[in-house]
Amino acid sequence: MATAVSAAVSLPSSKSTSFPTRTSIISPEKINFNKVPLYYRNVSGGSRLVTIRAQVTTEAPAKVEKISKKQDEGVVVNKFRPKEPYIGRCLLNTKITGDDAPGETWHMVFSTEGEIPYREGQSIGVIADGVDANGKPHKLRLYSIASSALGDFGDSKTVSLCVKRLVYTNDKGEEVKGVCSNFLCDLKPGADVKITGPVGKEMLMPKDPNATVIMLGTGTGIAPFRSFLWKMFFEKHDDYKFNGLAWLFLGVPTSSSLLYKEEFEKMKEKAPENFRLDFAVSREQTNEKGEKMYIQTRMAQYAEELWTLLKKDNTFVYMCGLKGMEQGIDDIMSSLAAKEGIDWADYKKQLKKAEQWNVEVY
Ligand SMILES: Cc1cc2nc3c(=O)[nH]c(=O)nc-3n(C[C@H](O)[C@H](O)[C@H](O)COP(=O)(O)OP(=O)(O)OC[C@H]3O[C@@H](n4cnc5c(N)ncnc54)[C@H](O)[C@@H]3O)c2cc1C
Ligand SMILES: NC(=O)c1ccc[n+]([C@@H]2O[C@H](COP(=O)([O-])OP(=O)(O)OC[C@H]3O[C@@H](n4cnc5c(N)ncnc54)[C@H](OP(=O)(O)O)[C@@H]3O)[C@@H](O)[C@H]2O)c1
């Protein structure tokens, strides 16, 4: 049995915000999470043990037996497929980037009535209304789930997304709007939405409540980490009480595009010993050499500490967002590993096998 603890969370106000019919639960500036009892499956029984060895050099830390998160029998995938999607309802859709931010990102909540049994770290598919240029239904697009399994209302009956509106100019100078992201960002409360999934096991949370969890997100890549962090810091579970270290690095272009900042600051107030928070605001900050502050630039400032943490068996790194970030992060890791005579590519393979290096970039 698990309960959602009472937490008040502000979403930035916006003139273009749409609010749901469920005004008794959500107010425009604040979502109040009341204590809601619910049933939570104990999932530890079906886990499989995986044995991983890392013998890269004599100095590379050996990996020990640990419980696989990916083999967990309780993780549901593909319950709903494109031919018979689940029809959810939009309950809330609000812009969470400032009006001067480059681009718009929206936070939205859909009803599931508990029919989509997702876990933190999974994604859902969305099929936009309408047809494509060939008159065929649109193909699904994947979106990382931004809510914990309990959902934003704490009743396990909703799923939330964090979606960037895709708008770009093509070779002919025409403005092109991405099909599904624009469909989602324009959704009004009360509207139906076709959902598939849930899918994905790569980004599932580690089971160990004492783990060090290093989260590296750019832009909407924050979604799975909001989901993790709500479970860690805003909820109470009989079978999970986080007492490790959660360290979030978030890269965004401007301070007006910092996503869920107030929530994360609230978490930091609640658990200063267990939560570290570092932002990389690329168009406003630079490092001491005057270089653009990308997520990997911020990480480099803690390089030694991160490397030390990475050598622990219960440290798990998660990366989500722009594809480009992966190379930058690999570059830092390569130089740190090389100092100890370790080949990063080999070592990363071992970490991946041990489910300690988890990447979902696009
Ligand atoms: C596992 C996974 C999780 C994801 N999670 C999220 C998430 O949480 N939030 C989120 O916002 N997105 C997420 N995405 C991305 C999402 O699935 C969509 O790809 C995105 O919303 C764009 O879809 P669309 O239908 O709006 O654009 P489409 O209509 O599909 O258009 C996209 C296409 O436009 C073209 N294009 C895009 N930009 C440009 C450009 N600058 N110049 C020229 N051509 C361009 C490319 O051909 C691209 O394939 C995720 C993707 C994956 C794989
Ligand atoms: N699981 C997934 O696969 C998944 C989940 C969620 C989102 N996504 C995708 O992730 C992307 C996030 O985009 P967004 O528009 O939400 O982000 P955004 O708000 O534009 O923020 C992206 C940040 O990353 C910076 N950046 C650009 N190139 C980088 C690089 N090589 N290394 C490190 N940082 C870099 C950007 O800096 P500058 O712009 O200043 O250069 C900006 O600060 C989207 O394409 C989205 O579809 C994928």
From TrEMBL:
Which residues does the record give as NADP(+) binding sites? S144, K164, T220, V252, P253, S282, R283, K292, G321, L322, E360
Query: Where does this protein reside within or beyond the cell?
Result: Plastid, Chloroplast
Q: Where is the FAD-binding FR-type domain?
A: 83-205
> What Enzyme Commission number(s) does the record list for this chain?
1.18.1.2
For the keyword Oxidoreductase, the answer is yes
Instruction: List the catalysed reactions.
Output: 2 reduced [2Fe-2S]-[ferredoxin] + NADP(+) + H(+) = 2 oxidized [2Fe-2S]-[ferredoxin] + NADPH
The prosthetic group or cofactor this protein requires is: FAD
| GO function term, MF aspect, one | poly(U) RNA binding
Q: Which Pfam families match?
A: NAD_binding_1 (PF00175)
UniProt record, GO biological process: electron transport chain; photosynthetic electron transport chain; regulation of tetrapyrrole biosynthetic process
Would the keyword Cytoplasm turn up in this protein's UniProt record? no
What keywords is this UniProt entry annotated with?
A: Chloroplast, Electron transport, FAD, Flavoprotein, NADP, Oxidoreductase, Photosynthesis, Plastid, Transit peptide, Transport
One GO location term (cellular component): chloroplast thylakoid membrane protein complex
Q: What is the enzyme's main class?
A: oxidoreductase
Q: What CDD domains would the database entry show? A: CYPOR_like_FNR (cd06208)
Q: Which InterPro entries match?
A: FAD-bd_FR_type (IPR017927), Flavoprot_Pyr_Nucl_cyt_Rdtase (IPR001709), FNR (IPR015701), FNR_nucleotide-bd (IPR039261), FNR_plant_Cyanobacteria (IPR035442), OxRdtase_FAD/NAD-bd (IPR001433), Riboflavin_synthase-like_b-brl (IPR017938)
The primary location reported for this protein is plastid
* Similarity annotation: Belongs to the ferredoxin--NADP reductase type 1 family.
The protein in question is named Ferredoxin--NADP reductase, chloroplastic
Q: What does the record give as the organism's lineage? A: Eukaryota, Viridiplantae, Streptophyta, Embryophyta, Tracheophyta
